[in-house]
Amino acid sequence: MADHEFKPPRRLAYERLADAARGGPTN
């Protein structure tokens, strides 16, 4: 169950990092 709850936040952080590295932060 921990994996399921740890997947959403981790995936979001990974996508945010990729966006920042691309040069287009959504924040």
Strand content: under 5%
What is the number of helical segments per DSSP (H or I, 4+ residues)? 1
Give the N-terminus to C-terminus distance in angstroms.
30 Å
Model regions low in confidence, pLDDT < 50 over at least 5 residues: none
Features of this protein?
27 residues; 1 helix; single chain
What features would you describe in this structure?
With 27 residues, this protein is mainly α. It is 78% helix and 0% strand. It contains one helix and no strands. It is rod-shaped and about 25 Å long.
Strand and helix map with partners:
Layout: H1 2-22
Please sum up the structure shown:
With 27 residues, the chain is mostly helical. The chain has one helix at residues 2-22.
